[in-house]
Design brief:
It contains 8 helices and 21 strands. The protein is an alpha+beta fold and 415 residues long.
C-alpha cells in the first residue's frame, strides 16, 4: 500500500520515500514507493508532475488495486533505493485552485437552481486549460448564471476554511453529501465550512480565498445536460488578460472605445452584409456574361448542342448554377469542369433529351481518378488533385462519347 501524503497535506512539496518495486509502463521505467506526495490522476483531476531523485516524472498512476498502489512513471531509471521526491508546485497549486473552485461552483448551482453536477473535467493548463462541469439540467438564463457566479464568489471572498478528514461508512450515514459515494472503505471528505461537503480524493486549498475569482465563461447544451466551462484563480486571470488584450486591440483597430464595440460590430455586420450583396450581384453579372460567351460557341454532336467548358477556380455550387441556367433551353448538353486541388465535373442535359448523363459522368470522372453520380439529367463528380489540362481532356473525351450515350439511352449497349 502506498501512503498518500497529499491526503493530509496538499501543500507538501518535498518528501522522503523508500523504493518498494521497479516496474515498466509502456516501455518507460516506473517505480512503486512506500509513500508519496504526488497525486495520481483521478476524479477529473490530472496527475501531478515533479521529480524523484532529480529525475522528471512522466506520469503518476493510481493502479486501483486492493493495495491502493501508486505507480510513478519516470523519464529514466531510478538508481537509488532511498529517494527524495519533489512536487511541481505551480502545477499542483493550479489544480488545487480549480478543484476547490469546482466544489464551490457545483454547490452554488444546487443552491440557486437545483442543478446537480454529474461530471467534472480539469484539463491541462498547457493544453488550453479547459475546465468544465456537466449539469443535469438545461435552459439557464444569463441572469441565473450570474446569480450562481455571484454566490460562488461570495464564498471565495469570505475566505472560509476548507478541511479534509477520513470517516467510516457508518459515520457517513449521518453526514449529508452533495453527491453520494460508492467507496466502502474509509472515505475522505472535503468540506467548505458551512457550504459544501463532498467525498473527494483530490488536492484542495486550505481556505476559499486561495481559489481566487470564479468565472463562468461558457454554457453549452448537450442533450439533457449543460456543460459549464469556467476558470478559477490564475486561470481566470490568464483568461481575462487574453480577452482584455483582444478587446483593446479590436477597439484600437476600429478606432472606438471599449464601450462602443458592440455598436461598431453591429455597424460592420450591416456593412459587410451590404458589400456581400454587391459582390454577389457583380459575380452574377460576370457569370451571365461568361455563360453567354459559352452559349455563343456551342458545339454540335448529332442533334445535341453541347457546351464544353473548363472553369478554373470555380466551386461546385457555381458550376451547378451555371449548368442549370444552360439547360433551361432545349437540346442542350453541358460538360463543365474545373481542375486544381479539388477537381469537379458537372454534366447535365435538357429535359427533352434522352441521355444518361450519370453514366457518362462516371466514365469521364474515372479518367482523372474521380467518382460521382446523380440522375440521368444531372450528375456531378469529385476527383483527387488534377491539372486543368487533365480535366479538359476528360471533358473532350466525354464530348466524343455523346453519340454512344444516346444510343445506349435508346436501348443499345454503351461501354
Amino acid at each position: 500500500m502506498t501512503d498518500r501524503l497529499y491526503y493530509t497535506d496538499s501543500y507538501l512539496t518535498t518528501f522522503e520515500a523508500r523504493l518498494v518495486e521497479r516496474r515498466e509502463h509502456q516501455a518507460q521505467p516506473a517505480v512503486i514507493l512506500d509513500r508519496t506526495a504526488l497525486y495520481p490522476a483521478g476524479g477529473g483531476q490530472p496527475s501531478d508532475r515533479g521529480w524523484l531523485a532529480g529525475i522528471p516524472l512522466v506520469d503518476v498512476i493510481d493502479l486501483e488495486d486492493e493495495a491502493r498502489t501508486v505507480l510513478h512513471v519516470l523519464a529514466e531509471p531510478l538508481r537509488s533505493g532511498e529517494v527524495t521526491g519533489r512536487v511541481d508546485w505551480a502545477r499542483r497549486f493550479d489544480h488545487m485552485q480549480q478543484h476547490t473552485g469546482q466544489h464551490i461552483l457545483s454547490q452554488a448551482f444546487i443552491q440557486v437552481l437545483g442543478a446537480e453536477t454529474v461530471s467534472f473535467h480539469l484539463g491541462e493548463l498547457a493544453g488550453g486549460g479547459t475546465l468544465t462541469i456537466d449539469l443535469n439540467q438545461t435552459g439557464f438564463s444569463p441572469a441565473q448564471t450570474d446569480e450562481v457566479e455571484d454566490l460562488a464568489n461570495r464564498v471565495v471572498f469570505e475566505d472560509r476554511p476548507v478541511t479534509t478528514r477520513l470517516v467510516s461508512r457508518d459515520e457517513l450515514a449521518s453526514l449529508p453529501l452533495r453527491k453520494p459515494t460508492k467507496v466502502d472503505a474509509l472515505i475522505r471528505l472535503v468540506e467548505v465550512e458551512g457550504f459544501d461537503r463532498s467525498a473527494c480524493g483530490g488536492t484542495h486549498v486550505a481556505r476559499t480565498g486561495e481559489v481566487g475569482s470564479i468565472k463562468i465563461v461558457r454554457l453549452d447544451r448537450r442533450g439533457g445536460e449543460t456543460r459549464v466551462e469556467f476558470r478559477c484563480g490564475w486561470r481566470a486571470l490568464i483568461d481575462y488578460r487574453r480577452k482584455n488584450a483582444l478587446i483593446n486591440r479590436v477597439a484600437a483597430d476600429l478606432s472606438v472605445g471599449y464601450g462602443e464595440l458592440d455598436q461598431a460590430a453591429t455597424r460592420l455586420a450591416a456593412e459587410n452584409k451590404s458589400l456581400r450583396k454587391q459582390v454577389e450581384d457583380a459575380q452574377a453579372r460576370v457569370l451571365e456574361f461568361e455563360l453567354a460567351e459559352v452559349m455563343s460557341g456551342l458545339r454540335q454532336n448529332g442533334a445535341c448542342s453541347v457546351a464544353v467548358r473548363l472553369w478554373p477556380g470555380r466551386d461546385l455550387a457555381t458550376l451547378r448554377r451555371l449548368a442549370k441556367q444552360a439547360i433551361a433551353r432545349p437540346g442542350m448538353v453541358v460538360l463543365f469542369g474545373c481542375g486544381g486541388e479539388k477537381p469537379t465535373l458537372v454534366f447535365a442535359r435538357s429535359g427533352d433529351l434522352r441521355l444518361d448523363m450519370s453514366a457518362l459522368l462516371r466514365a469521364a470522372a474515372s479518367r482523372v481518378g474521380g467518382k460521382g453520380g446523380g440522375s440521368p439529367d444531372f450528375a456531378q463528380a469529385g476527383a483527387p488533385p488534377a491539372s486543368d489540362a487533365q480535366v479538359q481532356a476528360a471533358l473532350e473525351w466525354a464530348f466524343e462519347q455523346i453519340a454512344d450515350v444516346k444510343r445506349a439511352s435508346e436501348g443499345l449497349d454503351y461501354v
